[in-house]
Amino acid sequence: MFGNMGFFLLYFAVLLIVPLWANARVKNTYKKYSQVASSSGMSGAEVARKILNDNGLFDVTVEPVKGQLTDHYDPRQKVVRLSESNYYGNSIAGAAVAAHEVGHAIQDAEAYSFLRFRSALVPVASFGSNISIFLIIGGILLSASGLLLAGIVLMSFAVLFQFVTLPVEFNASSRAMEQVVSTGVIRNDEERETKKVLNAAALTYVASALVAVIELVRFIMMYFMMNDD
C-alpha cells in the first residue's frame, strides 16, 4: 500500500513539478542571455549561415519564423527556421540556438543514426500517442486488460521516441558548441554562457522523457493490478 502511495506521490511530483521547473529554467536562461550581445556581433541568421557554409551545407536555407523559441530544423525542406528575435538579433542566446538547429542540419547531412531512427519512429509514435490513451481509458473503464495492454504497447512507441530524442538533442548541442568555438562566433569567455543556454534547453527534453516514463509505468502497474484481481 505504501509502495503504491509512494509511486503516485512521485508520479504527481514528476508530472507537475519537473516540467514546470524545466520550462521556467529554459525561459529564464534564454531571457537573460538574449539580452547579452555576442562579441562577434553576428545575428542568429549570420551564425547559422556561416556554420552551414563552413560545413559545406550550401543547399540548406535559413528563414525567420514567428513566435518565441519556435526555432527548428526542417529536414524535408532543408531549412533552418529561427524565431525572429534570434534570426535578427545578435545575442549569445540567439547564437547558441542558431548553432543548435544547424547541428541538426549537420546530423541530417551525415545521416546521424539516432536522427534517422527518430525519423523512422515518427509515424508509429504519432499514431501511438494519439490512439493509446483511448485504448487505455477504454481498458480501465471496461476492466478489459487486453485493451489496456494494447494501449500500453502503443504508448511505449511514443515513450521510445522521447528517449531517442535525447541523444539527438544532446548531440546537436555538442556540435553547436564545437562550431561556435571553432568558427570564432563566440570568444572563450563566452563559452560558459552559451553552454547554459544549450543545457537549459536540453532539460525540457529530459523532463518530457521522465514524464513519459512515469506515465507508462503507472499504466503498466494498473495492468498487473487488473490481472491480479
Automatic annotation (TrEMBL):
Keywords: Membrane, Transmembrane, Transmembrane helix. The keyword Transmembrane helix applies. The chain crosses the membrane at residues 6-24, 120-141, 147-168, 202-226. It comes from the Bacteria. The keyword Transmembrane helix applies. InterPro entries: Zn_peptidase_2. This is Zn-dependent protease. It comes from Alkalicoccus daliensis.
